[in-house]
Amino acid sequence: MTNTPTTDPITDDELTAYVDGELAIMRRLEVEAHLSQHPDVAARVMAELHDRDALREAFARCPGPGPERNREAARQLDRALALGRVADKLRRAAAVVIRLSGFEC
User: Fold this and answer.
1) Buried b / exposed e along 60-96 (16+ C-beta atoms within 10 A)
2) Is the pTM of this model over 0.70?
3) For residues 50 and 44, what is the distance between their CA atoms, to the nearest angstrom?
4) Which of 28, 51, 53, 76 would staple 23 via disulfide (CB 3.0–4.6 Å)?
5) 15: closest CA among 51, 58, 44?
6) Residues ≥6 apart with Cβ < 8 Å to 73
7) pLDDT digits 0-9 by tens, 10-57
């Protein structure tokens, strides 16, 4: 009698999901058992894990606007828009005053 696998075969999509941390716990355990029996596949998965971690580390250090810079930019934009609304209201009020005073150009 031969030993037949009791689980579905591990697919490349599942290996990718394993690398991305998106497998259900039981399937992850099955994938890890598969990797322990197939060193060539395990080496490929380890290389993908290394690449994933390197990319995460590289992008974690990317300079860019931090939360405080974003808040300050939002405050400046809000002030500019508020001043624009006030200036627009003043223009309208001045136009009404000029019109009511009978001034003609």
Assistant:
1) eeeeeeeeeeeeeeeeeeeeeeeeeeeeeeeeeeeee
2) no
3) 10
4) 28
5) 44
6) 65
7) 999 999 999 999 999 999 999 999 999 999 999 999 999 999 998 888
* Amino acid (one-letter) located at 24: A
Write out the two tokens for 91.
């223009």
Show contacts of 37-45: CB within 8 Å, 24+ apart. 41/10, 41/15, 44/15, 45/15, 45/18, 45/19
Rg value, the chain, Cα: 32
Let me know the angle formed at the C-alpha of 54 by 62 and 31, rounded to the nearest 5 degrees. 140
Two tokens, residue 53? 């971690």
CA 39/CA 69 separation, integer angstroms:
48
Whole-angstrom distance, CA of residue 87 vs CA of residue 92: 9
Q: Which residue has tokens 């931090």?
A: 66
